[in-house]
């Protein structure tokens, strides 16, 4: 029974991680689009791309790396992999919580961020203000998915690793454990006699 439960939890963790990976890929694509737009607008300028673009790209790549480690942890159900994955997800949740608290509790939160000469940050901020309900639900769903990943990883860690038997040699296997080899004789080949 625990074997089937472990398999279901592993599959569920992989599925939930896939949603996070899609969001990370969307962030990467948005950052690449902004870099192309920045380069197109500032062809003759020596300004580097603004911090906001690199932040989006970095967060997208980080989210993809975290989801990749989540897939590895879910597949192996190894305690060390699960702990590393949990550390990554909890750190990301704490970072999101800190930024969210800064935005909601600090009236001058815009002063905490560097100036953005491209105007992309202002466009992003205006988009969020205009579509606040949609952005609120997207943000809430992402945080919920990350929380679900944490809970599933903890359950998977609680179930323990796969119960595998390790044998020193092939002679330790019995035929009951290898049902496809029952009809075959292992040993020296028998040649026809004359």
DSSP helix fraction: 55-70%
Main structural class? mainly alpha
Terminal-residue CA separation: 55 Å
User: Helix and strand string, N-terminal first?
Assistant: HHHHH
Strand content: under 5%
Overall form? elongated
Main traits of this protein?
194 residues, Tetraspanin/Peripherin, single chain, membrane, elongated, transmembrane helix, mainly alpha
Describe what is shown at a glance.
Helix content is 68%, strand content 0%. It has 194 residues and is mainly alpha-helical.
Describe the structure.
The protein has 194 residues and is mostly helical. The chain has helices at 2-41, 51-76, 79-105, 120-130, 132-159. The longest helix has 40 residues, at 2-41. 16% of the residues are buried. The mean pLDDT is 79.
Helices, strands, pairings?
Elements: H1 2-41, H2 51-76, H3 79-105, H4 120-130, H5 132-159
Helix pairs in contact: 1-2, 1-5, 2-3, 3-5
């Amino acid at each position: 029974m625990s074997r089937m439960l472990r398999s279901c939890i592993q599959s569920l963790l992989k599925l939930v991680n896939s949603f996070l990976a899609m969001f990370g890929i969307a962030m990467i694509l948005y950052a690449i689009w902004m870099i192309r737009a920045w380069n197109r607008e500032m062809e003759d300028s020596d300004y580097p791309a603004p911090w906001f673009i690199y932040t989006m790209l970095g967060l997208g790549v980080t989210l993809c790396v975290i989801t990749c480690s989540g897939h590895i942890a879910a597949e192996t159900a190894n305690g060390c992999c699960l702990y590393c994955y949990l550390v990554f997800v909890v750190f990301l949740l704490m970072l999101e919580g800190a930024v969210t608290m800064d935005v909601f509790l600090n009236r001058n939160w815009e002063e905490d961020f560097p100036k953005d000469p491209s105007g992309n940050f202002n466009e992003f901020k205006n988009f969020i203000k205009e579509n606040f309900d949609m952005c609120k639900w997207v943000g809430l769903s992402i945080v919920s998915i990350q929380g679900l990943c944490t809970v599933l990883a903890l359950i998977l860690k609680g179930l323990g690793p796969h119960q595998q038997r390790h044998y020193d040699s092939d002679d330790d296997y019995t035929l009951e454990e290898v049902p496809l080899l029952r009809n075959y004789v292992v040993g020296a080949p028998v040649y026809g006699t004359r």
